[in-house]
Amino acid sequence: MGAMPSTDAIGFLRPTHRRALLDLARRSIEHGSVHGLPLRIQPETLAPELAVKRATFVTLELHGKLRGCIGTLQAVRVLAEDVVHNAYAAAFRDPRFPPVSPSDVERLDIRLSLLTPAEPISFTSEEDLLRQMTVGEDGLILEEGFRRGTFLPTVWASLPDPKTFLQHLKLKAGLPEDYWSDSIKVYRYRTETIDKHSV
C-alpha cells in the first residue's frame, strides 16, 4: 500500500471525499435552518482523509451573488467538522447578510476552500511584496498589530492587479489603502477548491 498524500497538500482528496464534504456543508445549512445549530458529526465515523485537522472557508452564492463567507485560517478542527461549522456560520452568522431563509437553502451554490498552512513572506518593501505575489494562486493574510484581513485566491478573479489586490486587503484589515509600515506581516497560502463543478 502506498503512502497517503500529505493532508497539507493540494489535491489529496478523492472525488468521493469531495462530494461527501459538499454534502455535509449543505446538510449543516439545512439542519441550521430548522434547529439553529450546525450539524453534529462523529469524528470517529469519518474516513481518515476527512478526520485530519484542516483550515477551511465556506463561500455561499445565491443567483450568482455572494451570500456568505466564513472560515478559519488555522487548523483547529478536523476537516469535516470545520466544514459543517463554517457552512452553518456562512449561512446564518455572516454579519454582512441576514440569515439565509429556509426557502433559499436548496438554491445556494456552495464552494469549499481547503487551505494549506500559511507561510510568512519575507519582503523589504511594498514593491518587493508586490513582486512576490502570485496572481491567481496566492491567498494572503495581512497583519498589522491587532488588525488582520485575508483574501482567498478566488478574489484575484475580481482584483487581478497585485497593487489593487493589496490595497483592498489593507482596507479589509481596517487600514488605509496607501498604508505602509515596517511592522506589516504578510502570509501566503494556497487552496483546494471544491464545488459542484469539481466533483
From TrEMBL:
Signal peptide: none annotated. It holds the Pfam family AMMECR1. Residues 16-199 form the AMMECR1 domain. It comes from the Bacteria. This is AMMECR1 domain-containing protein.
